[in-house]
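Final report, closing paragraph on structural work. Over the funding period we assembled a curated collection of sequence-structure pairs, and we close with a single example.
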Amino acid sequence: MKTNIFPAIRLTLFCALFFSGIYTVAILGIAKFTPNNGKGQIITQNGKTYYSNIGQSFTQDKYFNSRPSAVNYNAAGSAGSNKGPSNPTYLAEVQARIDTFMVHNPGINKADIPSDLVTASGSGLDPNISVEGAKVQIKRIAKVRNISEEKLLELVDKQTEKPLFGLMGTSKINVLKLNLALENNK
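Its predicted structure, as stored:
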């Protein structure tokens, strides 16, 4: 018994010291060398501060909608829903999001709605949507803001972030940056 307990206690003490102290300080030190000293991607506009790396809710018709959040955009509780694709509750949530989207975007076919506009991300805080997700909303925003669809399409193209090194990932659009640019183009 002594041969098992003492090594287990030593390992527990080592892990507690390492992960609560040494590792934490090392990660904090690395963060100090990143942009904005590890405090996030901050945007200040009109006296307001925004974090562009955390998803935020935009539901008014005059803005591009964000990706749904399983945690109601609460950064303190980042998580997915943990519901499988055949879960009846999950399917009902997705159908409700589809119905809401179609009410606010008349003339859009259900098949034309990108999945990222009706399904939450794994973190529940994804700040990005697909280019298709932005383009499918242009008609609604053009009508509400009385702006030409071509002008909105140019804005979407300017805000599109290409894949890393042109290889990794897909093109995406940060919804906060896109909506702030939309506000600046009044």
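The two ends are 74 Å apart (CA to CA). The chain has two domains: 1-39, 54-184. We thank the funder for supporting this effort.
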